[in-house]
Amino acid sequence: MTLDSMAWLMLLPPVLAFWLIVLFFNRWKRLSHWTAIGAAFISFVLAQGIVIAGLRMGAEALAERPIHSLLPWLPTGATVLSLGVWIDPLTVALLFFVSITVLAIFVYSVGYMHGDPKYSRFFAFISLFAFGMFGLVVADDLLMLFIFWEIMGLCSYLLIGFWYHKPSAYRAAVKAFLTTRIGDVFMLLGIAYLYSQTGTLSYDVLFRNHEVLHRLATTPSVIGGLSVAALAGLLLFAGTVGKSAQFPLHVWLPDAMEGPTPVSAMIHAATMVSAGVYLVIRAFPLLSAGLGGAAGTPPKVAMGVIGAFTAFFAATIAVAQRDIKRVLAYSTISQLGYMIAALGVGAYVAAAFHLVAHAFFKALLFLGSGSVIVGMHHHQDMMEMGGLRKKMPITFWTFVAGGFALSGFPIITAGFWSKDEILAEAFHAAMGGSWLGWFVYTLLALGALLTAFYTMRQISLTFLGEPRSEHAEHAHETPWTMTAPLVVLAFFALTFGFVGVPEDFPVLGPLFGGNFFHHFVGATLMEEMETTPLNWVPLTISIVFALGGLYFGWWVYGRRPLEAGAPDPLERALGKLYTVLENKYYVDEFYDRLFIQPTIRLGAWVYKWIDRGVIDGILHTVAKAAVVSGQLFGWVDRVVINGGVDSAARGVGRMGEEGRRGLQTGLVQDYIFILAVFVILFVLVYFVRGAGL
Amino acid sequence: MMLQEHIVSFILFFPLLGAVIITLLPRDQKNLIRWFAFLWSLVPLVLASWLWLHLEVGSGYQFVERAEWFPQIGAAYAVGVDGLSTPLVFLTTLLVPLALLVSFSIEERVKAYFALFLFLEVGIIGVFVSLDLLLFFLFWEIGLIPMYFLIHIWGGHNRNYASFKFFVYTMTGSLLMLLAIQVIGLTQHTFDIVLLTERGPFSRVGTLGLPIAMGTLKRLAFWAFTLAFAIKVPVWPFHTWLPDAHTEAPTAGSMLLAGVLLKLGAYGFFRLVLPFFPQEAASYAPILVVLGLLGLIFGSLSALGQWDFKRLVAYSSVGHMGFVIMGVAVAALAQVGKIDPLTASLATEGAVLQMFTHGISSAAMFALVGVLYERAHTRDLHQFGGIWTVMPVYGGILLFATMASLGLPGLAGFVSEFMVMRGVWPVFTGVAAFAILGLILTAAYLLWMLQRVLHGPVDERWLKLPEIKAREVVALAPLLFLMLLTGVWPSWIMNTINAAVVRLLGL
Questions:
Q1: What's the rounded Cα separation, in Å, for the pair A541 and A550?
Q2: Percent of chain B whose pLDDT exceeds 70
Q3: What is the largest distance, in Å, between two alpha-carbon atoms of chain A?
C-alpha cells in the first residue's frame, strides 16, 4: 500500500464509525464503543505505519518530496480546486502523538462514560472528532484544513454541551462555538485573500515556493503598510487565537470544561486546541516572509506579544482556581501561549516540540483529573479533596508525572526539554537585541515559575494531607480502562523529551543521539536550521524557577495540609487580587456588557424599528394613501357623476350577477379546474397540430 | 421519440393534469387524494432527473420546443433548459413531493390544497424553462395565485394581512416587469429570450413615439426588471413581505416559498437582467452588492431579534439570499470584463450554487419548524427547551439542518458561501470584510435557536410530544442527503453549474 493511500484510508474508519453508530448502532452500547475503538485502532495502526515509513525515508527525503496526493473537488472556471493529503516531517510528528492520544482517550472513555444514558452518542461524536483531527493533520491545503478545523469545532460544541440539560453546559457550548467562530471567519477571509492572490491554497505553493512567498511579501495589501503576506498572515493567526484560546478569545476554553473529561483531555488539551498552533507552525514560512521591524514581521510580533501575554496572564488565573479541571484549562491556555510566543521569536522547532510534549502530559493530567472526578463521585472542587494519594495510587503517581512534566522538572520530564528549548530560543533572541525577545522571555520565565507553583498547589490540594470531605473519604481507584491509558501517557510524558535533547548538553546530548527531533521536524522548512548553542544562563533560570515554584507550592499547600473548610492560604496573602484572579479579571463580564448584550438589543431594535417601523411604516402609509384616494374618487363618482349613468350601470350589474353565479362558485378548485382544462386543451391543440393530424 | 422531444413540456404540464384529476376525485377520500398527489408528483421528478442526466453540459439551451402562440405580437410557446435552469427545475420537482408528504397532516379542504400545490409547481417550473418573455411573465403570475390561496386559506392567524401583503408586493413588481416586457415586445417585435440575449433587448431603435431617449428607456426597463426580481429574492429593503408570508403560510407552502419561489427572483437576475442590461447592471453593481450585504447583516440581526421559531427561519432566508445578491453584483461586473476569470466564475457559481443549497436547507428548516409546531402548537421560543431529550431523532435532524444553514464546512452551505466570499473579496474588499460580521451573526442566531429549542431541562408540557414520524423523516432524508453530498463532493452539481456560468459570462 502506498503512503498516500494509507493517509486517505486512515480518515475513513472514524467517519464510518460515526455514521454507523448514529444511524444503526446507537441502541447497543457495547457495540457502539467497540465500533469506535476499533475504528480508532485501525487509524492508529495506519498512522503509525505512516510514521514508521516516514522515519525510514528520512527527514531530508520526506521534506524534499513530501507524500502528496490530490483529489479534484470543485470545478470552477477553467480550473479545478483540489483537496489532498500531504505528509512531510511535521505531519509525521503530529500523526505520532495524535493517534496515540486519541486511542488512549477512546479506551479511557469506556470507563469514564460508563452508565451514561447517551453513551453511544458520545462515542459517535468522538469518532467524528477523530476524523476531524486526522483530516486536519494530513490536509495538503488551507481549505481542507479549514474544513476539518470546523468539523472539530462542531464536535467540540456538541461535546461541551453533551449534558445539555445543564444550563452551564449548553451556555458553554454556544460560547465556545461563537468565540472560535469569530476567529474562524477572519481566518476564512485570510484564506480567501491568499486564494485570490495566488490562485491556489496548496501548502506546496503558499509555504514552500520562494517566488510566491517573495511576491506576497513585497506586494502591498489593502491596508497601508502591510504586505499581502503580513495581512493574510494576521488573518490566519486570528483563527489560531480563537481555536487555541489566546487572549482576547480565550474565554471559551475554561467554560468548555463543562464537557465530559475525556473530551477536555482530547479536544481541549491534546488535539483540537493544538490545531491552532499547528496552523501557525505550518504557515510559518508565510508568517515570517518579508521584512518587518527590528523584532520581525507583523504576524511574528503579534504572535510574540499575544502568546507571551496569554502565557503569563492565564498562569496567574490558574493560581486562584478551585475546580481541578479549570486549573488545567488555564494551564492549557498558558502553555499554548508558550508555543505561539515561540513562533513569534522564530523558534519553529521548539514550538512543534512543545506542542507534542504538551499533548502527552496535558492529556495525562486531564485524564488523571477525570479519574479523580470519578473516584470522587463527580465532585471537582479541590477544596473538598485531599488525601487521595493513598486511595488512588496509580492516579496519583501518573498525575505527579504529568504535573512535573508541566512544571518542567529537570531532566526526567518531557516538559523540561521542550519548555527549556523555547526559553533558550527566546533568551537567544533577547541577546540578539530584539525587544520582542526580552518581552517574550521575561513573561515566559515568570509564567514558568507560576506554572510550577500552581501545579504543586493542585497536587497538594488533591492528593496530599487528609480527606476534607465525605467523597474524598470514600474515594476509590478507577478501573483498568481508565488507569491503563494513564500509564501509557505517563510514559511519554516522562520520556518523549529525550528525542529533543540539545546536542551540546553534557552527557545526555550525545547519549540520546543529538537532538533528533530538531533535525527531523526542522527539515520541513528545507533550509538548514541553526541550533541555538547551549546557554547556561536561561537553563539555570529555568531549573531554579521550576524547582522553586514546585517547592513554594509545596511550602504553602503541602507542608501544612489544608484543614476542611479552611480558606485558601493564598486568599489571605493576596487579598483583593485573589478575588480578581478568581473571577478571571472579569473579562467575561466585560464582554457580556460590551458585546453580547448590545448585539442582542440591536437585533431586537433592527426588527422593531427598521423592518416594522420604517420599511413597513412606509408601506402602510402608501397603502393608506391608496385607500383614501380610492374613497375620494368614489365620493366624486357618487356626487358628481350620478343620474343616467347610474341606472345604466345598474342594469349591466344585474346581468353580470346572473352570469357570474354559475361560474363564480367561490371554490378555489373550480377555478383551477377551469383554468387547467383550458391550458390542457391549448396544449393538446398544439400537439395535434404539431403532429400534423 | 415523442417523450424526449417534449420532455420539458411533459415536466411542465404533468402536474397540471394531476391538479385536474384531483379536482375530479371524491372530496371525502382524503387519503386517496394525498397519495395520488404525492405519487403523481414523483413523475416530474423522475423526468427532471432524466433530463439532467441527459443534459449536455455547457452547450446552451437544450430540449428546446417551439410552437406558435401569438404570432401577431411575436410571442411564442418556447421552452428549453440549460445548466442554469436544470438544477432549479430538479430542485422544484424534488421539493414538491417532499412538501406534499409533509402536508399529509392537512385535514381542511384537502382537495383544493393538493390541487393548488401541483398548480403551483407548474408556475414555478414554467418560469425556469420559459424562453419567451411573455410566457415567462405568464408563469411568473401563475405561480403567484396558488401561493396567495395557500397562505390565505391554510395560513395562520394573521393570514389576511400576510397574503395580501405578499400579493400586492409581488404584483407591484410584476406589473413594472410587464410594462418593460411590453416595451421590449413593441419595439423589437419579438419576445424570444434567446434572440434578445444575442442581440440585446434594444437593438432595434425606436421609442414608440414617446418623447424619451433610448438610453432612458433602457434604463427604465432595467429598473423595472430589477425591482420585480429584487422584491422576489428579496433584496433588502424589499423583504418585509417575506417574514409575514412565511410565518403565516402552511409548512409546505413555506418550504416551496423559501426553497424555490425566492429563486425565481435570483434566476431572473441571471437569465434576464444580466444578459439584457450588462452596462446598466455593471454600473449599479456597487449598489447591489451593498444591498446584498445589508440583507445579510440586517436580516441576521432581525433573526436574532425573533422569538417566533418560524419567523427566525424566515429571516435567515433574507440573510442567505444576501450572498446570492453579492454574487450577482460581481457577475454583473464580470460580464463587462472587469474581473479576472477565476474570481468571476467563483462568485457567480457561488451565487448559483447558493440558490440550490439554500433551497434544500431552508426547505428542510421549514419542514422541521412545522414538525414541532404540529406537535406543540406553538412556535414561541420562550416556551421550548429540552426537546432533544424528548425527541432525540428530531433533535439530531434539526441540528444537522441548522449546521448546513450555518455554513459548516462538510455541508452544502459552506461551499457556496466560501465561493461567494472568495469572489467578492478582490472586487469589493470592504464588503467582503463586513460580510464576516454576517457570518458571525448567522452562527449566533442559529445556535441561540438550537439552544432555546433543544437544550436545557425538559418542560413538563413537552414530555409527551411524539417523536418525528417515519413519513416526516422520509420527507427530510433526501434534503439531508443532498446537504451532505454537496458539502463533501460538490462536483456532482458544480460540473453543470460551472459549464453554464462559463458560457453565461463568456469566460
A1: 14
A2: 98
A3: 122
A520 and A604, same domain (yes or no): no
Contact B494 A76 (CB under 8 A): yes
In a domain, A453, yes or no: yes
The number of C-alpha atoms within 13 Å of B359 and in the hemisphere containing its C-beta is 31
Is A603 found in the same domain as A546?
A: no
Question: Where on the phi/psi map is residue B200: left (φ > 0), alpha (ψ -120 to 50), or beta?
Answer: left
Give this complex's ipTM: 0.92
Task: Please give the Cα distance from B331 to B328 (Å, whole number).
Answer: 5
* Chain A interface includes B29 (CB < 8 A): no
Quote the distance between the C-alpha of residue A148 and its chain's center: 11
Residues A637 and A526 in one domain: no
Is residue A241 classed as helix, strand or coil in its secondary structure? Answer: helix
User: Is B407 inside any structural domain?
Assistant: yes
Instruction: Give the best residue of A145, A672, A681 to mutate against chain B (max B CB count within 10 A).
Output: A672
**Model confidence pLDDT, tens digit, residues B224-248:** 999 999 999 889 888 888 998 888 8
Q: A88 near A62, Cβ under 8 Å?
A: yes
Kindly state whether residue B191 falls inside one of the protein's structural domains. Answer: no
Residues B174-206 have pLDDT tens digits of: 888 888 888 888 888 888 888 888 887 777 766
Q: Are residues A572 and A598 in the same domain?
A: no
Looking at the fold, whether A568 and A656 belong to one and the same domain comes out as: no
User: How far is it, in rounded angstroms, from Cα A434 to Cα B217?
Assistant: 67
Contact A71, A83 (CB under 8 A): yes
* Optimal mutation site among B79, B342, B387, B448, interface A, most CBs of chain A within 10 A: B342
Of B22, B146, B403, the CB nearest to A154: B403
Q: Domain of B490?
A: 284-507
Q: How many residues does chain A have?
A: 693
Q: Do A348 and A471 have their domain in common?
A: yes
Per-residue pLDDT at A669 exceeds 60: no
Q: Which of A539, A560, A582 is the last residue of a domain?
A: A582
**A342 and A451 together in one domain:** yes
Say if B449 falls within a structural domain.
yes
Give the model's confidence band at A243: pLDDT under 50 very low, under 70 low, under 90 confident, else very high. Answer: very high
On whether both A627 and A494 belong to a single domain, the answer is no
Is residue A266 a part of any domain in this protein? no
Give B132's strand partners.
Answer: B192
| Preceding amide of B490 cis, omega within 30 | no
Find chain A residues with C-beta within 8 A of B395's C-beta: none
What is the total count of domains within chain B? 1
Q: Is residue A208 part of a domain?
A: no
**Domain range holding A594?**
589-666
Give the C-alpha distances (Å, rounded to integers) separating B146 from A622, B153, B375: 26, 10, 26
> Does any domain span residue A607?
yes
Q: Are strands A79-87 and B75-81 parallel, antiparallel or unpaired?
A: unpaired
List the 592-651 stretch of A: residues with Cβ below 8 A of B.
599-600, 602-608, 610-612, 615-616, 619, 623
The model's pLDDT over A389-433, given as tens digits with 9 standing for 90+, comes to: 888 889 999 999 999 999 988 888 898 999 988 999 899 888 888
